[in-house]
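Researcher: Good morning. I'm working through a list of sequences from a screen, and I'd like to move beyond sequence-only analysis. For each chain I'm collecting a predicted structure so we can compare shapes side by side. This is the next one on the list. No need for commentary yet; just the structure.
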Amino acid sequence: MKAFTLPDLGEGLAESEIIEWHVNIGDVVTIDQVILTVETAKATVDVPAPYSGTIVSRHGQAGDIINIGSLLVEIDEQVTATSESNTASLNTTTLKTMPQVTASQSVSNAEVQSTSSKNNKNDAATVVGNVSQQSHNINIDEFWIGSDNHSNESNTDKPLITALPSARVLAQKMGINLANIQGSGPDGVILDGDVYQACDKQRPGTEMLKGARRSMAASMAKAHQQIAAVTITEEAILSRWSTNEDITTRLVQAIVAACQHEPALNAWFDPDTMTRCVHDRVNIGIAVDSQYGLYVPVLRHADEFNASGIRKWVDDTVAGIKARKIGREQLQHGTITLSNFGAIAGIYATPVVSPPQVAIVGAGRIIKKIRLNQDASIQQTNIQQATEVDVLPLSMTFDHRACTGGEAARFMKALVNHLEG
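Model: Good morning. C-alpha cells for this chain:
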C-alpha cells in the first residue's frame, strides 16, 4: 500500500483547491494517469498518479482546500509476475547462504523488518512528470482536550484529538471546537479544510475564499501596500466608430499604440533594487470576470496580433476560464493590464496596479454627451451647433515611483488619439 500526498506544485504555493476527481475508489490506474485536477494561484494543474495499482482510499472532495503534504489517495501498488519471481528467487538464494543466527538476532531482525514495513506503509510519494519531485513531511500535533491537572484516570476518558498545527490555530481564530470535527486526513487527522467546513456549518453565509478569489485577495493587499498609485482620467469621442465596433479589440490596439509612443508605462518596477525594466514587447493582461473570481490572462506579443486574432484569443481564453482550463503560464509575464469594467457598469474608476507592472488602463461604460461643433454653413462664426456623440471614459492608474505624471499624460493622449482615429 502506497500513500500519495499533495506535492509542491511550484512557485512556493502552499495550498490548492480540488477542482475534480478523475478516479474513484476501486479504479485501477497506471503511472502518469491523471487522477485529479487542482487549482492554485488562478491556474489549474492536472495531478498524475505516481504508481500503478488500485485506488484504495480517496481523501478530499471537490471544493476542498488542501495543503502540501495532505493525503490524496492510497494505492494498492501492482506487482508484476516477473518482479514476484525475482523476489522469490532472491529470497531462496538468501536463505541458502544465510548463516545461522541466535534467537536474539532473529528477534532483532524481525523488529527491523517490522519497522521497515511500517515506514513503507507511510511512504509519502510526490507527483511524477512536470511538477516538483520534492517530498514534504507534515508534523502532526496531538493533544488532549481538557486540563493537564486531571488525573491519568480521567484523561483516559478524554478523546484524543489529532490535528495539524495550522488547523489548531485556525480553529482558535474561528472559535471552532475541534472535538466536534471529523478529520479527513490520514487516520482522522484534522486538516485546515475540515475547520473551514465546520465554520461554514456554524455560521450560515460564511464561506472560505478559494481559487481566484483567494489569490485576488492576496494580490490586492500586496498592491495596496506597495504601489504609489495615481489615477488619471480622460474621454475618447467615438464619432468615427462604426455601429458594430469591437470595443475590446480597439482598446487592445490603442494600448499597443500608446505603449509604442510612450514606453515608460509598459514596464516593470523592482522597489528592492530600485530598477525599472521597460519592455519592447507589449504583453497585455486582460481582466476577465467569472463566477470563480477575477482572472487576468495575458495576450503575449499583442503588437503582433491583428483585430481578428485578438478577438479569437479573447473568445478562446474566456471559454477556457469558464471551463476552468487555464494554465499558470497563461497568467504570467504581463507588462500592462486592461480592465474593461464598463462592459458591466461604471464610468470612471481607480483600477489597481498589479506589481511588478506600473500601469493599468480601465475603460468605463460608453455614455452619450452633447458636443458643440462649428457650423460651416452659417456665415456667423460665433454660432455653434450641438450634436450628440458617444464618449468612452478612460481611467489609468500608474505607479508614480516608476512613472512621471508627464509620461502618464502622454500615454493617455496617445491612447485617446488612437481610439478617436
